[in-house]
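job 3f2a | input accepted
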Amino acid sequence: MPGGTLLWVPQIIMGSEQKTIAILVEDLYQVLEVWYPLLRLREEGVGVVTVGTGTKDEYKSKEGYPVKVDTSIDKVKLEQFDGVIIPGGYAPDILRRFDKVNDFVRKLYLNGKVVASICHGGWVLVSAGILKGKKATSFFAIKDDLIAAGAQYEDKEVVVDKNLITSRKPEDLPSFMRAIIKQLKKI
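job 3f2a | predicted structure (187 res):
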């Protein structure tokens, strides 16, 4: 919880390795793009930690549906995570304003961990500076932002470029999650 110290991160065995994923949240998140991955990963046996910016203990979706965070970006330790999911909605425009969020995403990416974004989550990838020369997709409204950041934009339900996984919209969630789970089994 914000202000506290993250003492325990759930780590569940997936194959022969323990895996833990962070899901970044802020106000105005897209409800399906947080809850579908969170529940699907738990179903798969992956530890899931919701990580907020530290401004509050609970964030609301665009529709007002709340999610309590397990910790804040100030308290996370990079080595505790095998990846991160950046949901869409308008939350990424808030998330990207926090240098620690961008640094966390960038360092996970550079360490070969899973970095996955869907919809407007690509805004955080832009601010993290990891798109140059990478294949990626997003919600069509931010296509130009990804291209300006150096991405090779592809209009597909899921695009995988090594440890970078991107999708366009809630309807792509099944393919998005299959790609994330497949990549987690590789690392």
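job 3f2a | The chain is about 30% helix and 25% strand.
job 3f2a | closed
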